[in-house]
Design a protein that fits this description.
This protein has 620 residues and is of the alpha/beta class. One of its GO terms (cellular component) is plasma membrane.
Length: 620
């Protein structure tokens, strides 16, 4: 007999057939509880939404400071700029905005009035900070993919509350953003006004000094030709000086971008950085090209200044273009091996990076040219006349201060115009409205989940019940574990099969061992006795095992059983002493297995003790 076997599909079907009521009860109970939760317990949640479109240059009037940015940088002032969509989204969830929403809707008072029982017992007080944090978690602000639109949404059990929160968040954000903008603008104006006042005083002072110097040295009477040449030199000097300042500002911006690429994408190792530095500044073609570019540009600027009609100018310009292209080619060749991974990741960033490196090299060349030209002009004027040189220095300061004065004046006018033309960065596409239908719980989805859960729990319940039931479930299980029984009774009243079996085998003394219900054992034993007495009146004795008999009665009954020719005894427990006492005097022991009552472990144990019992299977 095999005690363990694999579970087949047929076994599963039989299990479900046996446990169909278990499955059905669990399934219906789960569906009922799901429906009860859905319609009587769950609180409907409503979601309000508002869609707005981001206008990145909304607060920038058509006469913006874009052209002044480099000038602002070189003057050392920080210009207000567009903060970007991501920053604006975070500002919408700032404490200032949400605190005003909490106050506007009296959320603190409402929360404390509607506290739960546990919170009341604990004496917990809801604070403004708690509600701000709650709103910050509950409000969902996200960018609509591939657009400049964002969606503000909030869920609440009160549809009016949901719509109010969304509407007020945007309203207070608008006020907050406007205040921030004017604070930044005013800070910028204060910086510019302070600088403008200082430069204005310096400019007035230098104008006075120039006028006094002209009067004292009678320079006004200079010839028109020499005066024109002198003025052009001063103008060129001042313009070149300002170009150097602008060049430094632009170079700083490029250096920042270059560093950002290296830190965030390229992540150059120290060895690679040393390699790039070595290959761009030591004995390489790059150094020679840069040197040639410097000398050619100096020659070009000198010719433009002294001989503007020289045919050499065209040739130099063509040569400079060739040298610049050659410089770019050499730099790309130097970096090609170390930047292959960057090119494979992002060709656009690779091109930008190499372009920045090239531009920085060209800036170095241009700056050297400008500095050399300033030195040339300075030397030229200092040789001509000490008085003219002193006058040149004054005019140089005057022109530089004039450029700064005009830059700051324009910056002031531009920023004031921007402030007067301020516009919100967002345009409302869809206003918040009170939702009519809840977004949760989703009736269809919840019932579907409940149905799936009901099936799962029903299946689980069937197998748990099956695993916990240690009795014989059906004839198939018994046969698969212990073999085919000798006799199968369709019900517990079918005593004729037992009598026929005993009569055919001509058993004189036999025992009936019931592994099941005691009342069934009594009933069946009595019926067997009645039928045997009908066949052989008064020849067969019927004995029963009683647990409460004293020893004298027990042994007197045993002696009577031994001295009787034909008799049988009924046992309801194979572990009691009577079974041990009578077993050796029995021709046959008939074991009754009762379906859905007899324990499998009892069957295994009796089969270990009895070598050849007659097995009767009683169906239910």
């Amino acid at each position: 007999m095999e005690e363990e076997r694999e579970l087949t599909f047929s076994d599963i079907l039989r299990i479900f057939k046996r446990r169909k009521w278990t499955f059905l009860i669990i399934f219906l109970l789960t569906i009922f509880l799901t429906a009860f939760y859905l319609f009587f317990v769950a609180t409907p949640t409503y979601e309000a939404k508002q869609v707005i479109e981001y206008k990145s240059s909304s607060s920038q009037p058509s006469v913006s400071l874009g052209s002044m940015s480099s000038a602002a940088n070189l003057l050392g002032i920080s210009q207000p700029s567009d903060s970007g969509l991501t920053t604006e989204i975070e500002r919408m969830k700032s404490d200032w905005v949400l605190a005003n929403v909490v106050k506007e809707l009296n959320l603190v008072e409402k929360a404390n009035e509607n506290k739960g029982l546990i919170a009341r017992l604990r004496g917990t007080e809801v604070t403004e900070r708690d509600l701000i944090d709650s709103l910050k978690e509950g409000i969902n602000i996200q960018n609509v993919q591939d657009t400049n639109m964002i969606e503000i949404s909030y869920q609440s059990s009160d549809p009016t509350m949901a719509a109010s929160v969304v509407s007020l968040v945007y309203s207070y954000y608008t006020e907050y953003a406007k205040n921030l903008y004017f604070e930044d603008s005013q800070s910028y104006l204060n910086q510019v006004e302070t600088l403008f006042e200082d430069v204005s005083q310096q400019y007035d002072q230098i104008n006075k000094e120039v006028l006094d110097f002209q009067t004292e040295n009678k320079l006004v009477a200079s010839s028109s030709t020499s005066s024109g040449t002198f003025d052009s030199l001063i103008s060129y000097y001042s313009e070149t000086y300002m170009n150097i300042l602008k060049l430094d500002a632009e170079k700083n911006q490029l250096e920042i971008r270059k560093q950002a690429i290296e830190d965030n994408i390229f992540n150059l190792s120290p060895e690679t950085k040393e390699f790039i530095l070595t290959n761009t500044e030591k004995d390489t073609p790059v150094k020679d090209i840069k040197s040639k570019l410097v000398s050619d540009k100096i020659e070009l600027e000198t010719l433009k200044l002294n001989s503007p009609s020289s045919p050499r100018i065209g040739a130099l310009e063509a040569e400079i273009t060739v040298l610049e292209n050659e410089l770019k080619t050499n730099l790309e060749a130097i970096f090609s091996n170390d930047l292959n991974f960057l090119a494979s990741i992002d060709m656009g960033t690779f091109n930008e990076y190499t372009g920045i490196i090239t531009q920085l090299q060209l800036f170095d060349v241009t700056k050297q040219v400008y500095e050399n030209m300033l030195q040339v002009i300075d030397d030229e004027i200092s040789k001509s006349s000490p008085i003219l040189y002193e006058y040149f220095l004054l005019k140089q300061q005057q022109t530089i201060l004039q450029a700064r004065y005009n830059t700051l004046l324009t910056a002031l006018e531009q920023e004031r115009m921007k402030a007067s033309l301020y516009d919100n960065k967002f345009k409302v596409i869809t206003s918040a409205y009170i939702p009519e239908n809840p977004v949760s719980p989703n009736t269809t989805l919840t019932l579907a989940i409940g149905g799936v859960l009901a099936i799962f729990l029903g299946i689980l319940g069937v197998f748990v019940r099956e695993a916990s039931d240690k009795t014989v479930k059906d004839l198939y299980e018994f046969e698969s574990l212990f073999g085919v029984p000798d006799i199968i009774l369709d019900d517990s009243n079918d005593a004729e099969k037992i009598v026929n079996y005993v009569y055919k085998k001509d058993f004189k003394k036999f025992g009936l061992l019931f592994l099941g219900n005691f009342s069934v054992a009594q009933n069946l034993s009595q019926r067997i006795y009645n039928i045997l007495n009908t066949i052989k009146p008064n020849k067969t004795e019927y004995f029963t095992s009683k647990g409460n008999e004293d020893y004298k009665e027990k042994f007197e009954k045993f002696e009577k059983f031994k001295n009787t020719n034909e008799a049988f005894i009924m046992f309801d427990n194979f572990n009691n002493g009577d079974y041990i006492l009578y077993r050796d005097d029995l021709e046959k022991i008939i074991i009754f297995i009762e379906e859905k009552t007899t324990n499998l472990e009892d069957i295994k144990e009796i089969f270990k003790k009895e070598k050849d019992p007659t097995v009767v299977y009683v169906k239910k």
